[in-house]
Amino acid sequence: MQRSFKAKVIVSFFTIVNLALLGMGTLYYYKTSGDIERNTIDSLEQLVDRSVTILDNHMDNIRNEAWSYFSDKDFQVFVSNMSSAYPEKNSYYKNRLETSQRKFNAIGMIGVYDLYGNELASGQRSMLNAAEDNHRTKNQKKTLIEMALQKDGYPQWLVTHATAINSGNLNNTISFVQALKKISTYSQKMVGVIQIEFNASLLNQSIQDLNSGAGKDFVIVDRQGKIVFAENEDEIGKEIGDEPWYRSLTLTGKIGYRKSTIQGERYVTLYRKFQLNDWMLVGKIPLDNVLGGVKQARKFTLVIGVITLFIAMILAYFIAGSMTKSIRKLREHMKQVELGNFKVTVPVRSYDEIGSLGMSFNRMTRQIDYLVEKEYEARLLKKEAEIVALQSQINPHFLYNALGTIDALASIEGQEQISRISQSLGSMFRYSIKGGQVATLSEEVQQVKLYLSIQQIRYEDRVTYQIEIEPGLEEQLLPKLVLQPIVENAIKHGIEQIRDGGCVTIQARSIPDGRMAIRVHDNGAGCDERRLGEIRNMLNNTGFASRMADEDRSSIGLDNVNRRIRLYYGEQAELTFDSSKGTGTEVTLLLPITHAGRDSDA
Asked: Where does this chain mainly localize (predicted)?
């Protein structure tokens, strides 16, 4: 099925826009997805870094507070004699512990134990009765004392349990544990252990904040990959050091991330090392969660693309309509030309290629209309010529015999001038009616000589003539009877108007543009500017209507010659007319030089 030009423009425009949008949309999507992924991971890194920094600050405060007790000699003495200490001392240090706990919200409880299991504690632990204490914390307290003594006073963070005040349930937490020594000049004797628990609810909330959102899983691990603290207490103590996603972490810097695949699902794994110990916060997040903004960007890109395509189609329709409107108009006018109407004109509203096509079409129709009119005029002239020829051929022997009789009688009576006139008229008559519409230049000149011989008899000494023909031009062909009407016009309107000294000059020369110039000059009366303008306008208007309107004018001979050479040679032929009052007139014929044979049937 053949498509219209408008449809092709729409399809081309839509294809180009579609490809451009597809390319731009793809680039935008990948650029946006990359930016969103990087920004999201950067935000997660910042969140992890901020969370660990806060925990580090809390842990540093706890360590500093423990050091204040570790370096207090009076407190060392108190712990070494805790079992026999005065009640006032117990009350004093208990208040001090309570004060330390209230000073930092990160402290959940401070407990001090001697080597015999005696205890002085603040906060939650102080509110438990002896039965609960023995039941829940005996083993933990024993373990803390053993581990602290093994470190010989070196501080450490351990996983512990804290008792909630409201529910009495055990909560997972971490504790700063350090052995207390009684330091003297000669010895450093172990006297007990101090434990400062990290506020369990605060620690748990920090991990919960990191895990907010589907699929997130952050935990605190030690250097061997053992989970120290997690939101899900079942994970505490679990070894993850051998898991692929954990091993994929390079752990070379303070903080970092890496993409990994776990059971066919892509994850982003992050880590941030603690400053005060060898612990590390690690976590994994499904990549789809990270790229949630990318999905929104993809949807947004698709929506914008569809809207843009819809707008592009509408614009393509109107642009194609605007572009093809002129072509449709041109096509409609072409159909009128096909029907024979050559006077149509396409309105040109632009100067682009389509406008240029319209102007060319207008020039073509004007030229065709001109040629049709010329052809019509030529056919009419041919009809007229045929009629005249037929009329002129009526009984030619009678005219010949009549002129012969006049010539014979003139000879008998001794009238030589009448005899010469009869002979010249007979020759002119035979030339005009013999076959063919073209003649050689020499034949035309001979016809002019016969005419001028008759005029010399008529005007006696008032008329003379000169004829100059360039050698080689004698056999050039031209339409028959083009010189005689011009010479006749020179005699009638030029020489006849002066008393004596009239001269007609005929010259034929070749010119550089490949034409020959035939000039007929007379030194007669000439004409004024007004009359000169009228004649030139007549010669420039070769239409058939103008000819009919000017048939009764004295310059019909010039008009006839002008139209015949134009019909014969086309635009290559010219007839110019120059004249001035009192100096004479010059008529010039510019005709192509031809070397074709005579066409007697033309």
From this structure: membrane
CB 272 within 8 A of CB 254: yes
Give the total number of structural domains in the chain.
2
Contacts 24+ apart (CB under 8 A), 162-168: 162/108, 162/109, 162/124, 162/197, 162/200, 163/124, 163/125, 163/128, 163/132, 163/136, 163/137, 164/124, 164/200, 165/123, 165/124, 165/127, 168/132
- Give me the torsion for CA of 325, 329, 332, 337, rounded to 10°: -150
Q: Which of 172, 202, 232 is the last residue of a domain?
A: 202
Whether 550 is covered by a domain: the verdict is yes
The overall pTM is greater than 0.85: no
Distance between CA atoms of 77 and 63, rounded to whole angstroms?
A: 21
Token pair 């009419």 is at which residue?
A: 380
The reported pLDDT for the residue numbered 435 is: 65
- The predicted-structure confidence for 239-256, as pLDDT tens digits, reads as follows 988 888 888 787 788 888
* Rounded CA separation 419/403 (Å): 9
Q: Could you tell me if 155 and 177 are in contact, meaning their C-beta atoms sit under 8 angstroms apart?
A: yes
Q: What is the pLDDT of residue 79?
A: 87
Domain boundary among 185, 202, 219: 202
Residue 80 lies in a domain: yes
> Cα separation of 402 and 420, whole Å?
14
In terms of pLDDT, which residue wins out, 465 or 133? 465
Please give the distance of CA 500 from its chain centroid, rounded to a whole number. Answer: 83
By residue range, what is the domain housing residue 125? Answer: 71-202
The alpha-helical segments, DSSP class H, found in 460-549 are: 483-493, 529-540, 544-549
Domain containing residue 490: CATH number: 3.30.565.10
The reply to whether 14 falls in a domain is no
In angstroms, the Cα distances linking 192 to 186, 279, 313, 350 are 19, 26, 85, 103
Please, which contacts does 257-261 make with residues 24 or more away whose CB atoms are closer than 8 Å? 257/41, 257/44, 257/45, 259/287, 260/284
| Contact (CB, 8 A) for 173 and 160 | yes
pLDDT score at 551: 45
Looking from the CA of 232 toward its CB, the CA atoms found within 13 Å total 7
**Taking the CB of residue 475, how many other CB atoms lie within 10 A of it?**
11
Q: Could you tell me the two tokens for 285?
A: 């997040």
Give the domain CATH number at 184: 3.30.450.20
- What's the pLDDT band for 37 if we cut at 50, 70, 90? confident
